[in-house]
Amino acid sequence: MTLLTVTGLHKSFGGVVAARDVSFTVARGEMLAIIGPNGAGKSTVFNMVGGQLGPDRGQVLIDGQDITHASPQARFRGGVGRTFQVAQTFLSMSAAENVQMALISRFRQSRGLWTPARERHRAGAVDLLAQVGMAEAADMPCSALAYGDVKRVELAIALAGQPKLLLMDEPTAGMAPQERAALMDLTASIAASQGIGVLFTEHDMDVVFGHAARVIVLLRGQIIAAGTPDEIRQDPQVRRAYLGD
Ligand code: ADP
Ligand code: MG
């Protein structure tokens, strides 16, 4: 079942065409990677799906609903989530408190007057931390966690928004190689079991080829190849243009 449909997205900055007629889909539960050299247009495409950037032409549909011109906030409510790095100021808070904050902002319209909102979301936060294997660390300050564990907390924060589609911009940047595979395995299993589509960019080709169901390759704003990791690895144009043949 198609979750995200991107059709003919086009964006230019002055004379530079950052995205040219970009079309692709993401199904529920599917992990789709966007790869390409620096300046290929990955962030531009990402930001047009997330709503940080408006396209010159083209269309973005979630569940058949046109969100091309919706604000990032409206997209978030419509199920487009994004992983954010735990900000420096929140590192002193516990893992649970970070997730509680995300739950409070999701439920902000229904916040009661008398029940401290934070306490109300404690159980939900611990449950989300359990989903990412971090229940044990609920009361530890994030500053005391290993970097890979902070990334898991970030995933729990993103899941607190109940996304249908999760956008992850270089989710494993800065992580050790063994931690990368573990985080992406976890992401893939949560995505599959909850039917969440994941769109991610990534520099580490082991992560891309090991974890994406499909890969699209951008070069100078255009999709030059799309397919399974095996198809992409064997594509002569991709090898020439990007993988260094
Ligand atoms: P990637 O994420 O693949 O490295 P980007 O989407 O950031 O690529 O950039 C694609 C092209 O668009 C590059 O040539 C870049 O310089 C240009 N570009 C991106 N954003 C802007 C902007 N806000 N203003 C001007 N040019 C931009
Ligand atoms: Mg980029």
User: Using only CA atoms, what is the Rg?
Assistant: 18 Å
**Any idea how many domains?**
2
Query: Mind telling me the CATH superfamily name of the largest domain?
Result: P-loop containing nucleotide triphosphate hydrolases
SS field, number of helical segments = 10
What's the end-to-end separation, in Å? 36 Å
Biggest beta sheet summary: 6 strands, mixed
Question: Would you tell me which CATH topology of the largest domain applies?
Answer: Rossmann fold
Protein name: Branched-chain amino acid transport system ATP-binding protein
Keywords: ATP-binding, Nucleotide-binding, Transport
GO molecular function, one term: ATP binding
Organism: Microvirga flocculans
Secondary structure layout plus pairing:
Blueprint: E1 2-13, E2 16-27, E3 31-35, H1 42-50, E4 57-62, E5 65-66, H2 72-77, E6 80-82, H3 95-106, H4 117-120, H5 122-131, H6 147-160, E7 165-169, H7 177-194, E8 197-201, H8 205-211, E9 214-219, E10 222-227, H9 229-234, H10 236-243
Parallel strand pairs: 3-8, 3-9, 6-7, 7-8
Antiparallel strand pairs: 1-2, 1-4, 4-5, 9-10
This protein binds adenosine-5'-diphosphate and magnesium ion.
Which tags fit this structure?
2 domains, globular, ATP binding, Rossmann fold, 245 residues, binds magnesium ion, 10 helices, nucleotide-binding, alpha/beta, binds adenosine-5'-diphosphate, four-stranded antiparallel sheet, six-stranded mixed sheet
Describe the protein:
By secondary structure, this protein is α/β, with parallel strands linked by helices. It has two domains: 1-79 and 163-245, P-loop containing nucleotide triphosphate hydrolases (Rossmann fold), CATH 3.40.50; 86-160, no CATH class. It contains ten helices and ten strands. It has helices at 42-50, 72-77, 95-106, 117-120, 122-131, 147-160, 177-194, 205-211, 229-234, 236-243; strands spanning 2-13, 16-27, 31-35, 57-62, 65-66, 80-82, 165-169, 197-201, 214-219, 222-227. A six-stranded mixed β-sheet has the order 6-7-8-3-9-10, sandwiched between helices. The chain has a four-stranded antiparallel β-sheet with strand order 2-1-4-5, with helices on one face. Strand 9 and strand 10 (222-227) form a beta hairpin. Helix 5 (122-131) packs across helix 6 (147-160) and helix 6 packs parallel to helix 7. The chain is globular and about 55 Å long. The two termini are 36 Å apart. 39% of the residues are buried. The mean pLDDT is 91. The structure holds adenosine-5'-diphosphate and magnesium ion. Magnesium ion (MG) binds at residues 42-43.
